[in-house]
């Protein structure tokens, strides 16, 4: 097999989750979920409240403690904006990397050349973005932008200085090399297909200049760019008026290259199967036949609800998806792991009685 072409991972904005997108763009994979960042924010809030209680006169009756309690979380707001402390905590735990400020004494004291860092996280007015070194060049990965934008090594310091002048806080990713780029097709599963861009096509579209205009660089001829918009196996678009072939039909792949056929087959295998419809039944009364399950929703809320021990795990998904307003992934146990394969099991059979579940939107 020839070596895989270089791809650049670039998540686009969803709600106010630019902090999550910036982290994932930095590490070039869908490594962090909103639930993980929400859990980290709650942990930091508990630490800060405990510190105030233990180190201020009057403890929990102190004015500062009461003011902090009234204000709510200092690490995530209702819209889903996360603090730098949250990003630092999850990045350190998952990849053992730190995020020192480039304006801080730690970086200035070292007199470090900025290009020795593989990535950066930037923030201004609750918006986060990333800069990452890929294939010998730095790329601005801003979830509000359509595509990655290239920066040369020689322009990096000037670009960072320009961002600082615009009011951005800049944090370097320190502590060692960041995760490597995908080397096999299956590794592209680490994020939605439409988030992957061919590095060579981006360079060709922009001619080395930041911010290609119009349709240039959209990679419309690249099969990977079409996967997220509902590509049929015959190469057409889901928006086409021609109906997609039925499962039993013979698919004509004439004219497609071997790589395109491989990518289309992979996209078909990655397509999620339709979830069986499940009814959200009324909460059962307390008793021997009911168990309590604690659920952290994608927006950070915690709910405790009873389910019958004989109910299907699918009923839990139906309840959570109703609360979250869309499809979710659920994790349970320790260390946390996805329980999607248990959807057809009973709550008792899946051993979920008394468990704490974490939900993340898909």
UniProtKB/TrEMBL annotation:
Residues 286-323 form the UBX domain. InterPro entries: Ataxin-3 (IPR033865), Josephin (IPR006155), Ubiquitin-like_domsf (IPR029071), UBX_dom (IPR001012). It is found in: Nucleus. It catalyses: Thiol-dependent hydrolysis of ester, thioester, amide, peptide and isopeptide bonds formed by the C-terminal Gly of ubiquitin (a 76-residue protein attached to proteins as an intracellular targeting signal). This is ubiquitinyl hydrolase 1. The active site is at 18, 127, 142. The keyword Nucleus applies. Keywords: Hydrolase, Nucleus, Protease, Thiol protease, Transcription, Transcription regulation, Ubl conjugation pathway. Residues 5-188 form the Josephin domain. Its main location: nucleus. Its EC number is 3.4.19.12. The keyword Nucleus applies.
């Amino acid at each position: 097999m020839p070596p895989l072409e270089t791809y650049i991972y670039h998540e686009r904005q969803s709600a106010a989750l630019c902090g999550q997108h910036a982290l994932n763009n930095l590490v070039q994979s869908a490594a962090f979920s909103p639930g993980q960042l929400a859990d980290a924010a709650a942990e930091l809030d508990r630490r800060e409240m405990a510190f105030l209680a233990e180190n201020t006169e009057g403890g929990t009756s102190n004015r500062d403690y009461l003011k902090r309690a009234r204000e709510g979380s200092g690490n995530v707001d209702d819209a889903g904006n996360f603090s730098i402390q949250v990003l630092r905590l999850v990045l350190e735990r998952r990849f053992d990397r730190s995020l020192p400020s480039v304006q801080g004494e730690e970086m200035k004291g070292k007199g470090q050349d900025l290009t020795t860092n593989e990535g950066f996280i930037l923030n201004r007015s609750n918006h986060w973005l990333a800069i990452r070194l890929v294939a010998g060049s730095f790329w601005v990965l801003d979830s509000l932008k359509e595509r990655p934008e290239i920066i040369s090594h020689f322009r990096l310091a000037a670009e960072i200085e320009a961002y600082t002048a615009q009011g951005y806080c800049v944090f370097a990713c320190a502590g060692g090399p960041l995760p490597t780029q995908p080397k096999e097709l299956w590794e592209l599963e680490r994020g939605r297909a439409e988030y992957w861009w061919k590095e060579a096509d981006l360079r060709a579209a922009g001619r080395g200049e930041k911010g290609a205009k119009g349709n240039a660089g959209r990679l419309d001829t690249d099969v990977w760019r079409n996967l997220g918009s509902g590509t049929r196996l015959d190469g057409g678009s889901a928006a086409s008026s021609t109906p997609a072939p039925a499962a039993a039909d013979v698919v004509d792949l004439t004219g497609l290259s071997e790589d395109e056929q491989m990518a289309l087959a992979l996209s078909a295998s990655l397509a999620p199967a339709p979830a069986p419809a499940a009814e959200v039944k009324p909460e059962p009364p307390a008793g021997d036949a009911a168990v309590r399950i604690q659920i952290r929703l994608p927006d950070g809320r915690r709910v405790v609800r009873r389910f019958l021990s004989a109910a299907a795990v699918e009923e839990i998904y139906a309840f959570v998806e109703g609360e979250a307003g869309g499809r979710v992934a659920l994790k349970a146990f320790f260390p946390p792991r996805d329980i999607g394969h248990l959807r057809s099991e009973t709550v008792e059979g899946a051993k979920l009685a008394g468990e704490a579940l974490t939900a993340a939107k898909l």
